[in-house]
Amino acid sequence: MKIDVITAFGDMVDQTLNQSIVGRARQAGIIKLGTLSPREFTADKHKTIDDRPYGGGPGMLMKAEPLYQAINKLRKKSSFVILTSPRGQVFNQELAKKLAKKRHLIFVCGHYEGIDARIYPEVDLEVSLGDFILTGGELAACVMIDTITRLQKGTFKKADVTSSEWKP
């Protein structure tokens, strides 16, 4: 399985998911994890990825253009794009099982007050960890990737049934 994470904080994702079971799954080639910064798709010298909301309002939004270009650099026919969002469908084990069957996942990690709404047509699914707000989507993406990795064949020895048999 290929998993890409679009984030301004790639080290946060990479370091978190280079440990323990997920780290071993990466080393074994069970999952291939990449990060891509939307800053790579900016034209200004400061690599700006945020802007004020159109029409005003508090805070800053992630710009649509860098996110759009990052998604389209990674997207293939088999890709499934997930936006981490407090407004999305709540993540659970059943959703993890569905996502674990996909060949390529692209996680878009929101930050600031959110993302420019023009990016929503590029997203297949908005997913939330629950009824709370994180500083950014990186931790949410890491939690989901950890859960999805546990469901990949070869992550655990056959005798270990805890990887996919857990029921709430």
Write a compact overview of the structure shown.
The chain has 5 helices and 7 strands; from the N terminus they run βααβββαβαββα.
Structural topology:
Blueprint: E1 2-6, H1 10-16, H2 20-27, E2 32-36, E3 50-51, E4 61-62, H3 64-74, E5 79-90, H4 93-100, E6 104-109, E7 125-128, H5 138-150
Parallel strand pairs: 1-2, 1-6, 5-6, 5-7
Antiparallel strand pairs: 3-4
Helix pairs in contact: 1-5, 4-5
Could you explain the architecture of this structure?
There is one protein chain. The protein is an alpha/beta fold. The protein has five helices and seven strands. It has a five-stranded parallel sheet with strand order 2-1-6-5-7, with helices on both faces. Strands 3-4 form a two-stranded antiparallel sheet. Strand 5, helix 4 (93-100) and strand 6 (104-109) form a beta-alpha-beta unit. Helix 4 (93-100) crosses helix 5 (138-150). The longest helix is centred in the last third of the chain and has 13 residues, at 138-150. It is globular. The mean pLDDT is 89.
